């Protein structure tokens, strides 16, 4: 497994990521008989606006910027729905959300979160999953949601570390600097 396989390159076709995620969500919700309302779909699209986890506040701002009537509970309800369906994951240490690339498959979200560029890359190592399941079962514990968060620095940021222009960002900087990139839809 090369870093490229889970860390998106700087010049990748992100429109494709978004389109694939929305397609998957449409299909998944239709099969499950749950409603991917316009708002839920738009929130999912905004979460997928970038590969950095995005906080609820920025999502709310994004919706307001589009002239939608959106109150925080509306956004949280939409996020709850997306979490329930496995379409997004919550990165607890950032209190932020990131799209899931394989919502159809039962898996534990295992995230490598880069402290420099902020990208959260999801891996799904079956051995990690098995170890968690095994440990939980042995403890008589019923798992409802499991996300493994690993903080560090991605390969590309390590390569560019010599340039001296980048500094490690604190957690709150993610939110300040996490710009919104509304994606083209359709
Ligand atoms: Zn992408
Ligand atoms: Zn996932
Ligand atoms: Zn990075």
Question: What report would you give on this structure?
Answer:
The chain is of the alpha+beta class and 186 residues long. The protein has one domain: Winged helix-like DNA-binding domain superfamily/Winged helix DNA-binding domain (Arc Repressor Mutant, subunit A, Orthogonal Bundle). 44% of the residues lie in helices and 13% in strands. It contains eight helices and five strands; from the N terminus they run αααααββββαβαα. It has helices spanning 3-6, 14-32, 38-47, 56-65, 72-84, 126-138, 155-159, 171-177; strands spanning 88-91, 96-99, 109-114, 120-123, 147-152. A three-stranded mixed β-sheet has the order 4-3-5, with no helix packed on it. α3 packs across α5 and α4 (56-65) packs across α5 (72-84). The radius of gyration is 17 Å and the shape is globular. The two termini are 32 Å apart.
């Amino acid at each position: 497994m090369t870093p490229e396989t889970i860390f998106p390159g700087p010049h990748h076709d992100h429109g494709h990521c978004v389109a694939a995620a929305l397609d998957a969500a449409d299909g998944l919700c239709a099969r499950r008989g749950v409603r991917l309302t316009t708002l839920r779909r738009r929130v999912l699209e905004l979460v997928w606006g970038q590969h950095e986890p995005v906080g609820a506040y920025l999502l709310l701002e994004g919706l307001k910027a589009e002239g939608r009537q959106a109150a925080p509970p509306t956004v949280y309800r939409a996020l709850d729905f997306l979490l329930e369906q496995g379409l997004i994951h919550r990165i607890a240490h950032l209190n932020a959300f990131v799209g899931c690339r394989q919502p159809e498959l039962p898996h534990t979200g295992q995230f490598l979160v880069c402290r420099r560029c902020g990208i959260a890359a999801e891996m799904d190592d079956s051995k990690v999953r098995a170890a968690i399941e095994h440990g939980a079962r042995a403890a008589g514990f019923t798992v409802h949601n499991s996300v493994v968060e690993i903080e560090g620095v991605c390969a590309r940021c390590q390569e560019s570390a010599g340039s001296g222009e980048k500094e490690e960002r604190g957690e709150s900087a993610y939110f300040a600097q996490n710009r919104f990139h509304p994606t083209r839809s359709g």
